[in-house]
Each structure stands twice: as structure tokens, then as C-alpha cells.
Design goal:
single chain; mainly alpha; 81% helix
């Protein structure tokens, strides 16, 4: 069940990014996309360790950490003209 919740969060993040890219014609990364992707990744980590999948859980942790780094960099970046 946690896996499905994580998948729904990731799909919602992808929809938010698609809206920003396709409708608003903005090529930047959406903070909403990254936040939902990170929360979905955490749900995958919890699900993997609950089911006993240590190797896939570690890979999901690495992916979630990388997403968090990009999210923090995006939030702290200053816009230059």
C-alpha cells in the first residue's frame, strides 16, 4: 500500500512538472515536482525495508538523497537576469 501511495505522489509530481513545461512553457524544474518526487522516494524506501528488500532500499535512499540535494540547490539558487 505504501508503494502505491509513493507511486501516486510521483505521478502527481510529474503532472505538475508537465503542466509547468507544456502549458506555461517554462523549462525550469518545479519545486513541487521535486518535493513530491522526494516524498514518493521516501515511501519507496519505507516499503522496501518493510518487505525486506535491503538492496533496493539502499538504492532508493541514494535516489532520494540526490533528489533532496537538487531540491535544496533549487531553493537556494538566486535568479540572475
Amino acid at each position: 500500500m505504501i508503494y502505491i501511495a509513493g507511486l501516486v505522489l510521483i505521478i502527481a509530481g510529474l503532472a505538475a512538472q508537465a503542466y509547468k513545461t507544456l502549458i506555461r512553457k517554462d523549462r525550469g524544474l518545479s519545486p513541487i515536482f521535486l518535493a513530491l518526487l522526494a516524498v514518493g522516494g521516501v515511501a519507496f524506501v519505507v516499503d522496501d525495508f518493510t518487505r525486506g528488500g535491503t538492496a533496493s532500499g539502499i538504492l532508493d535512499i541514494i535516489g532520494t538523497i540526490l533528489i533532496a540535494i537538487v531540491f535544496i540547490a533549487l531553493l537556494t539558487r538566486r535568479k540572475t537576469l
